[in-house]
Amino acid sequence: MKNVALIYPNKFKGGISCLAMHILHHHLNKYRDIRCDMYFLENYSQIKNRDAIIITLQYENDYFNVVKIVEKLKNKNPEAIFIGGGPCSMSNPLPLSDFFDVFVIGEIESTDIMYRLINREVDVEGTYFPEYHGKSKENFKSIKRVYPKKLGIEDYPINQFTHPSGAYGKAYLLEIGRGCPRRCKFCMARSIYYPPRFRSLEDLTYLVDEGLKHTDADKVALIAPSVGDYKYIVDLCKYIKERYNIQISPSSLRVDTVSEELLEVLDIKTLTIAPEAGSERLRDYIGKDISNEDIERALEVAKEKGIDGIKLYFMVGLPTEEKEDIEEIISLSKDVKKKFRKVSISINPFIPKPCTEFEREPFNMESKATIKYIEKSLKRHGVRVSYENFNSMVIQCVLSRGDASLGNLIKEYNKPNQLLKYLKKKGLLSKYLGALE
Ligand code: SF4
């Protein structure tokens, strides 16, 4: 029997809402000779004498926790193989290459990758062993990503553990599809989960029936990069509503997929949309492909359906951005506020992520001032403006594009601000933020 610890390197709240945790837990416990338990930031320190420790790498800013976790568990688990997986593992695991034996580059369903790694096999497709392959970008890029051509139901975690403190509440996570048919040039999800694969309506209704039978969820959270692009989204939502009369919560919807029928059945109070850029010109340039008319039409539909709150997501510091594009974020938000009672916008800096068409673009440090300017301009118009801590966005950029030399620095300066200060002092920041050759 192999004893495996599966860790989410942040709080329980996020981990229990992370589908990857449920998928891995379900996948591994199907093997008769594997026992896999889940852990989170709150309880990982009790892990000892395991054969394998798997950490899911969902966000770059978790790397500080990841390094602490690995350092703490190495001695208490001398026989364990340390395995990293998840989106950051697929896009660029180099900053963590000193801390893991192996990274999985791809999706594990319908494969025996995890099983073979836990059993110490080394010649496994879709895996990157930094010590063996080498720790350069070229070495890493030579690894071929693996993924199932079709998403089956046999590997789906029906028996999900739910909890009211989860990020989506007590929700059953229903993955409609993986990969996105759109072509936004800044989007990492699009490239690392390519090609888009949606589940059949028949499979999804089966997964809803079984999931709601086996969990005590009081809502269904629809998971997909672009939920509204699913051909049978209305049929699926109608099925859930009519059969279970339960709340359905979609992640954000593309405005061009918002329809009367869909809003009717979703029964939401706030519509969340992500124009990303204020002007149509910039939206076209970044591949977002949403016209002003699309936005207007979605807002009209929302109004008709009695929705009184709108949340808009924007990015600033995008390639080719001009002052006019920023002014259009402000005027669009003001226009929306004239029509809706509650309007909030979330603005964050554009981060040139690896594996995207914009991966070589620079990170714009002026974005901080731009965000403040937008906030100031909208304050007196009653639009709520929120944004992430700017320094942690800078560090996210550094880590997402970083190399193996960052590993030691993460360990030594184990907080984002401290690492940032060091990189600034040593004049290293531009190496990670500037335009790439
Ligand atoms: S629609 Fe969303 S998920 Fe799809 S490519 Fe664009 S940003 Fe990415």
Strand content: 15-25%
| Largest sheet strand order | 2-1-3-4-5-6
Low-confidence stretches: none
Q: Tell me the radius of gyration.
A: 22 Å
Ligands, ions, cofactors: iron/sulfur cluster
Describe the biggest sheet?
A: 6 strands, mixed
Instruction: State the fourth-level CATH superfamily of the domain at 2-141.
Output: Response regulator
Q: Could you walk me through the main structural features you see in this protein, from its secondary elements to its overall organization?
A:
The structure is a single chain. The protein is α/β, with parallel strands linked by helices and 437 residues long. Among the domains are: 2-141, 3-Layer(aba) Sandwich (Rossmann fold), CATH 3.40.50; 150-252, Transcription Regulator spoIIAA. It has 19 helices and 15 strands. The chain has helices spanning 12-15, 19-29, 63-76, 87-91, 113-118, 130-133, 137-141, 188-192, 201-214, 233-244, 260-266, 280-285, 292-304, 323-339, 367-379, 390-401, 406-412, 416-425, 429-433; strands spanning 2-7, 34-39, 52-56, 81-85, 102-104, 127-128, 171-175, 177-178, 197-198, 219-223, 247-250, 270-276, 309-316, 342-349, 384-386. The strands form four sheets. It has a six-stranded mixed beta sheet with strand order 2-1-3-4-5-6. Helix 9 (201-214) packs parallel to helix 10 (233-244), helix 14 (323-339) packs parallel to helix 15 and helix 16 crosses helix 18 (416-425). The longest helix has 17 residues, at 323-339. The model has no long low-confidence stretch (mean pLDDT 96). Bound molecules: iron/sulfur cluster. The site of iron/sulfur cluster has 9 residues, from helix 8.
